[in-house]
Each structure stands twice: as structure tokens, then as C-alpha cells.
Amino acid sequence: MKISMRRAYAGAVFLATFLAYFFTAARTVFLGDAGEFITAGVTGGIPHPSGYPLYSLVAWLFSFFPISTVALRVGLVSVLAASAGLAIFYLVLVWLMNCYRRKFPELFRSESALMLVSFLVCLMLAFSGIFWSQAIIAEVYGLNFFFLVLLLWLLIRLWETRQIKFLFWGAFFFGLGLGNHQMLLLFLPVFVAGAWAVPVVKSSRDGAPRLTSFVRPGGLRTVKKPWGSIPAFVRPPKADGTAAGLSASSLSAPAWRQAGNPPKPDDVLPIRASPVPPFVPRQDEGLRAEADKFLTPSLFLLGLAVYVYLPLRSYFGSLLDSGETSKGILEFLVHVSRASYGDFGIGAIWPDKLYFFWSFVVDVYHQFGVLTLWAILGFLVLIRVDKKFFLMTVWIFFANSLGIILLRNLVFTPEAAEFYSYYYLPAYAMAAFWIALGILEIYRLFTQFMPAMRKVLAGGAALIVLFVVQVFFTNLPQNSLAKFQFIENHSGALLSGLAPNAVLIFSHEGPGADTLLFSLVFQQFVHSLRPDVIFVAYPDQTPRIDRKALAEVYTGKKDLKEIRRALVEFALAHPDFAGRPIYTTFMVEGLNFDKDWQSRSNGLAYLLTSGEKENDLVAKEGLGQGILTNMDREILANNYFGADFLAQYYYAQAAFWAARGDEQRSQQFFRAAAQVDHEPLGVDSVAYQLLRDRELAKAHNL
Fold first, then answer.
1. At what angle are helices 112-126 and 70-103 packed, to 10 degrees?
2. For 546-574, what is each residue's pLDDT tens digit?
């Protein structure tokens, strides 16, 4: 009954979260890397370092599902992974709650209350802001969460049963999980330690009962008899090495037998312990142990072999081939290790790392509100409940937060803090474990010191339900992406508005860079929109340009204005671009060219023109009108990356109306840009003011 109820609750967790995620999942490209991952899934491409081969393969398979849009098909990877991970998370949490129950058996007479609390805590985690946001878009963090809780569950099964098959499965899935995200490497030491301490039982041999080698002293087990299954207590092993066992001669005649009555299924037999022979290993035990030592790392490497996908796919050609890993072992290692980012190390200023950690603490509080304080209590209680699992959760929590912060050589910025907040899903899950134990401990303390409060606190589940409902409806507006369309409409209109055979120079100020570039890549590679347009962007996103030559443009340049000027000069000097209209995603005013180059906005992009002879090759003008709904604006304005993307749209609109002499409408869009731009006095803002002053001078014949 208990097992079936656990499965029913786990199934309810999966179904409830799957439906919520499915009906709120994005049907188009969204912020961040979503556009690139969709493109990689549909085209069988290779995304940015570390390549994410497992996610790319799974996304490619999901892209064939005959439902809705390709963006939703690929997004289903996150939807299913997060929902399945939460169902497994529920099973682990119920196991943990039962560990607490064994410490305080007088507190809970049945498992029902524990399963209910576990169910509600799972929903609380599922609908917390950041977790929900990563479960409904094409991203790798939902699948990473799935592998983490799966490994926890396999390790717990190994602890409970001592069956080596769980060790083998764990080794395989650990290697496979690294093919999705290398963050799992941070957790490898504690998983190895947790598995290493288990005396694994392979099989029952030589008549020695396997059960006595792992049942805890005094533990409750089920004895199978012809008249039914009955609970019986097993005595601890004796000092001479023999173990308590069961035999027919050790059973005293029960009352029903003495009376001559037939047995009933619920009859409980008194059991006396009798010694059994100690376990004697067979002669081939040493060979089996050596085979196990070989098989475990072999299965790990088998899962890790998914990285072979990267050079193979690159060799056979791919529209999206970040890293070009087929060119050599060095290129492969650079891409897989993320060395091209150069962000590993502990050289950053230590106060920056403290700021990052404080930002992480604030993120945890934002996910769980006042219940975060209960996590502190649960953290302390877990030491008494299960020390092994306590060490597991502590390691995962701090390795996933402080470990990442210490290993990354980054200066603290709000943009970096926002980006890394998505990395911390495993830490949020560990906090949810502690919160669940904190709830039980508060209940125990109140009922112990104030017994009269037992009935009052029994309604505490209703308060948790209300909290879960409040979390759901608080985060629903920001995560309701089923009707979100702006980014796809924006990128589609931008490409459609370019003149034939155009060159588009990409450079972005702020954290919205990936969103814009990957949405353009998605339109061109997935929807085959404007294949005649050539992108001049990051070297690994420009398959039609010599990557080494383009990489030299960025070498040694850190100032944004300097990079933009170098990109424009590179495009103007490129022999293949002669006679092609050149557009930019930024205003060139203030870049100090030798020639009087100017920007002409069509509402979304800027045509590069000369002050000597203005170019009239703008294919369409007034783009971007009517593509931004109020709902989309609210979603973007309340997202750090979305607000920056929105600011660039407003700048382009402001420049468009300034060129047409509509000063009032131009200023309206400029004020809107300043309200959401994270750098309101940055390069784009200064460039717009220069452009506006020039257009005003023209309008007044100055």
C-alpha cells in the first residue's frame, strides 16, 4: 500500500508539473541561449562550449515530434526532464522524511502526512521562479537537474539494497549526465565517497542469507509464509560473527495452531533468533571484484562517450558548428573545456566573490521566501537524521554555489549574477530538502512542548497549500510564455527588412547580445529566412567568413566602441562585401571614423550610410510597429536580459522617428529605452543623442 501510494504521489507530481510546464512553455524563441539550442536541435548542430552533445542529440530527436512549433518540440526536453526530475525528487524526499520518522516514531503513526508534505514541497520547488523559468524553454538546466536527482535516488537505492546494479547504473548515468552539463563534475567526489562506503552484496550464495548482511539491527522486514506476509523484527548480529536468522525450528507454536484453527493473513508470529553460518565467499569472488572495478569506470566512460558526437557532426558538416571540433584534438579540447572563455581561475578580487555569494543567498530567499529560514532548521536536523545524506546535500549546495564562484575568474556585475542564478538549481533543490525537514521539526517541537497545539498544527498543511498557491500565481505571469511572440517577430522582421544580399554587422551593448544573435541564427538556419544575408558577428557564429581573420578583429580590444569600429572597418575592407549594402545592429555615431559614416534606422536595424552621399537601399522602413504586445513587454521588462533586449528595440524606434522629424515620438521611445536600459548613459544612449542632434539640425536647416 505504501509503495503504491508513493508511486501515486510521484505520478501526481509528474502530471501536475508537466501540465503546468507544457501549457506555459514557450512556442517560439526566447531569451538567452534558447534560440541557439533550438537551432542545434533542429539542424543537428553544435552549440557554444562545452558543446552539450547529449542535449543536442535529445533535442534533435524531440524535433521530430509532430506537435506545434519546433521551438516547443525542443522545449519539451526541458519540460519532461524537469517533471520527471521532480517525480524522482519526491521519492528521495519521502525516503528522507521516513528517515526522520524513524528517529521520532511517536510523532507520525503513518506515512500519509509525510507523503503529503513531500508533495507540497515538490510543488513549491517546481513553481519557484527560477526553476519554472528553466523548465519551459530550450535550456540545459532542467535536464541537469534530472540527472542530479536520478543519481541521488540510485545512490539511496544502493545504500538500502546493497545491490551492485545501482552502482553500475549510477556510473553510466553520471558519465551521460556530463554530456549534458559539466557541472556534475563538482559533485563527483561526494558521489564516489557515498558509493565507496557501501559493502555491496552481489548475490546470495552458499546458503548465506543476503538479507542479514544489510538489514539494520532492529529493522522491520517482511517474512514470506504460505499464509501471507507478516512483519517481523530482525535481531542484530552476534559478537561471534553469526547473524540472527529465521528457521522453522525457532518458531514457537502460536495460539491459533494450538487451538487447531486455520491461520489468518494478519496473524503475527513470535520470532526467536537462531544463528546461521557466516558468509563464506566463493573462490571466484576475487575475480568478480576485479570485474566490478573494471566495469564501473567502463560504464562511466560509455556514458561520457556521447562527446564523440561533436567531432563527428562537425566532420560531416553542420550549419551551426561552434568550435569546429573536427579540425583537431586541440580544437576539441578547447571547445569541451570552455577554455576559449578564459573565465576559470581564482584571480578575481575577493570582494567580488563575496558579492556573488551574497547574490546567491538572495536568490535562494527569492525562491522560497520566509520558508528559507526553515531550511536552516532542517539543515541542523539532518545531521541527526542521516549523516551521509547530510554531507551529500551540504557538498552539493556549496559546490554548486561557492564552488562555481571560486572557480570562475569574474568581476561582479548584475549581469553575471543574473546569469549564474540559473546554475544554482541543484542548490535550490538541496534547500528544499532542508525546508521539508524544517517543517517536520517545527511540528515536532510544538507538539512536544505544547501538546494542546497538536490539533491546531495539524492544519499546518493548509498553510503550506496556501503558500504553494501563492508561489504559483506570483510566478505565473512571468513564466506564461505560451503566447509570447516578440523575439521571433522582431528577428523575423529585422531580417525581412534588409536589402537583398545585405551584410549585417552584429554588436550589442549589454546582456541581450545572445538573445538577438541566436534569434537571427534561428531564423536563418531553421526557417531558412534570408539565406542571402551574411552575419559579421562572433567567430564561431559566422560560417561564411574566415574565423581566424574575424577573431583578429576582437583580439586585444575590450572597449565596445573600439570593437564596433573595427567590425565596420573589417566589413568595408572585405573583398566579398564590395557592392553589398551593410547594416549594423547599433548606431555608428560617435565611433570616430575617418569618413563621415552615419546610421539610418529602419525601425529595427541601421543602414550604414555616408554623409557625402546618402544610401537609399533601405528595403523597408517603419519596421517593428505593432509587434510588441503589453504582455510581452511586461515579461521582458521584468527580466534582466529581456529588459536590455527591449532597450535596443526602443533605441532603434527612437532613431527611426528622429530621422523623420517626429521629435515627440522619438523622445517617447528614448525615455522608454532609458527606463529599461541597464546602461542608460552607455554607448547606445550617447550615439542616439548624437544622431538626434544631427537630425534636428537638418530639420531646422542649421
1. 140
2. 888 888 888 877 788 999 999 999 999 99
* Positions in the chain whose pLDDT score sits under 70: 1-3, 199-292, 347-348, 449-461, 611-622, 701-702
**What confidence score (pLDDT) does residue 230 get?**
37
Phi, psi of 171 (to 5 degrees): -60, -45
Of the candidates 435, 413, 432, which has an alpha carbon nearest to the alpha carbon of residue 359?
A: 413
CA distances from 684 to 101, 297, 589, 654, 687 (A): 60, 53, 9, 11, 5
Cis, bond preceding 63 (omega within 30 deg of 0): no
Residue written as grid cell 531550511 = 375
User: Whose grid coordinates read 575592407?
Assistant: 573
Non-local CB neighbours of 114 within 8 Å, separated by 6+ positions: 94, 97, 98, 100, 101, 108, 440
SS3 410: coil
Q: Which three cell numbers stand for residue 93?
A: 524526499
- Report d(CA 46, CA 645) in Å as an integer: 25
Residue 598's φ and ψ, nearest 5 degrees, are -135, 165
pLDDT reported for residue 207: 40
Note the pLDDT of residue 545: 81
Q: What is the pTM of this model?
A: 0.84
> Distance between CA atoms of 639 and 425, rounded to whole angstroms?
18
* Cβ 570 vs Cβ 553: under 8 Å: yes
Q: Report percent pLDDT > 70 for the chain.
A: 82
Q: Residue 344: phi, psi to the nearest 5?
A: -90, 145
Contact residues for 70 (Cβ-Cβ < 8 A; gap 6+) = 38, 41, 42, 63, 526
